[in-house]
Amino acid sequence: MSQEYSSVELVGDETVKHFTMAVLVAALTAALSQISIPLPGSLPPFSLQPFGMFFAGLLLGPLWGGLALALYILVGVAGVPVFSNGNAGLGYVLVGQGTGGFLVGFLAGAVVAGAIVHRDIDPRDLSTVSVLVQVVGLAAALVVVYAIGVPWLSAVTGLPLVRAATVMLPYVPFDVVKLGIAVAIVEGGYLATR
User: Of 148, 71, 62, which is closest to residue 105 (Cα–Cα)?
Assistant: First the structure.
């Protein structure tokens, strides 16, 4: 007596591909966050973390890009030292140095950038998206990051909101440069997604 078995695909190839990319972008964000420069006083460190948000939004779209940054934050909250300068833990996100709002902002920013660039839950081929749309998506992500991060910094450190915004103002030009570099890297094909 012979039996026939047929395979059932529980998870599609595209889902596996996107999930794998999300894990890789989360790992890349963790690696980039280690490249940070501590600044004197209570200033937040200068780091390369925003690149993770930019790549997540550009390469993965809102759902999978958001998942990538959520994985990054969850791993850090669980105690793995993936945040800038090797920091970790829920306490660091909530009150440590007042920069937890920027971490949450990176997650929201990746979702916003992905939604603007891909205009759908699933990522589309970036060759069909103009550079202008990519820049607009990432610029909107930066606005979201600062809209969440600055009030959070103000609340945690006790700085008046205007003073907290003034403290963060010098970081904006560097983030705009990072935005341009991220678009150039993706447009140059240096982060192949296939």
Answer: 148
Please, which residues have CB within 8 angstroms of residue 172's CB and are 6 or more apart in sequence?
142, 146
Q: Which helix (H) or strand (E) holds 47?
A: strand 46-47
- Burial class for 112, CB neighbours closer than 10 Å (0-12, 13-18, 19+): buried
**Helical spans, DSSP H, in the chain:** 13-33, 49-77, 90-94, 100-118, 131-157, 161-168, 171-187
Contact 141, 54 (CB under 8 A): yes
Can you give the pTM of this predicted structure? 0.88
**Residue 138: band (very low, low, confident or very high) from pLDDT cuts 50, 70, 90:** very high
